[in-house]
Amino acid sequence: MIVCGVDEAGRGSMIGPLVIAGVAVEQSKIKQLQSLGVRDSKKLTAASRERLYRKIIKLADSYSVVRISPKTIDEHVVRHQLNHLEAYHMAQIIRKIGPDVSYVDSCDVNAARFARELKRLSDAKRIRAYHHADARFLVVSAASIIAKVARDRAIIRLAAQGNVGSGYPSDSKTVAFVREWFEKNGHVPKYVRKSWAPVQKIVSYQTA
Question: Which residue of 13, 83, 94, 95 is 20 to 30 Å from 173, comparing CA positions?
Answer without folding.
Answer: 83
